[in-house]
Structure formats: C-alpha cells, structure tokens
Amino acid sequence: MKKRIKHKLQSTKGFSLGELLLTILIISLAGVAMTGGFTVVHHSYKKITQQANAETLLSTTINKFNNYVRYGEEITSNSPTSITFIDPTNGIKTTITNGSDSTGTGGASVNNTGLIISYTGGSHQLLADSAMNDGLVPEITNINKNGQTVNYTITIKNNKGNEITKQAVTTRLLNE
Fold first, then answer.
1. Where, by residue number, does the polypeptide cross the bilayer (predicted)?
2. Domain count, the chain
3. Quick check: 64 and 126 in contact, CB under 8 A?
4. C-alpha angle with apex 95: 93 to 96, nearest 5 degrees?
5. Is residue 76 part of a domain?
C-alpha cells in the first residue's frame, strides 16, 4: 500500500478521470455552501445596517424636536400628531406635524417626508434628506402637553410602512 501511494505521488502522468471528477464535486459543494453563506451574510448586513440607521435617525429626530419644543413658548398640542408653539429664535408661530409629499423626497416613503415644520410664509422638513437614508421616515404620535412637560412617541418606519424602532419621550419645557 505504501509503495502504491509513493508511486502515485511521484508519478508525472497526471490525474485519473475519477480523481478529477471527485475534485470537481468537492469544489462544487464548497461553492454552493459559500454562495448560501454569502446570501445569509448579505441579508444580515442589510438588516443590521437598517436597524443602526433607524436608531441614528431616532436619536437625531428626538434631539431636533426637543430643541424646538424645549425652548418654545405658548405650546399647544392640537392633535396627537401635531404641536404648535412660538419659535424662540424668530418669535414666529410654528407647527410641527407629520408630513406627506407625493414626490417622496430623499428616497423616503412616497406618502411621507417625515416631520414637517410649518410657519407663516412656508414650511420645510424638520430633518434634511440626508438624515432619512435607506427610505427611513420618522413619525410623531401621542403628543400630549402636561403642565411643564410634553410627552410624545417617535416611530421610525421603512418605506413599506413597517415599524423599525420607536421611543416614548418626555421633554421638560423651559419657557412655560
């Protein structure tokens, strides 16, 4: 047996057909396993990246919304999805609400561009398009002014309307 293996190893004739077919079979099986693995890794990467982007958007939205409301004056909650106040930087009556836009600005959902800030003379998105990447859109609900605090919930949804993450927040008012 040792002689046969030694002879095979020292042979310069090449490989037999059986050896070649076995090698091709092993390489094919390894390729199939790797392709399946790449698919799983790619799907996991997309899901983890979307979750991380949603958490970043949630934090950015809360921070931006708090900066307006915390220092605002004469705050009223007109509905569970809208809040009106006097903007402390320019003294203009301002409303923040969920917005709709048929153009789907910034790759966001076709029916929503996130939060809209409206004032005398115009309106614009509370957040820049670049903050709402991956088709993620913030939505505000359950706005309730309660004395010196405003309670609300920010929900981050994808472009299919599925909830990715949400956070209930209480903001203490400084100018009320």
1. 20-41
2. 1
3. yes
4. 150
5. yes
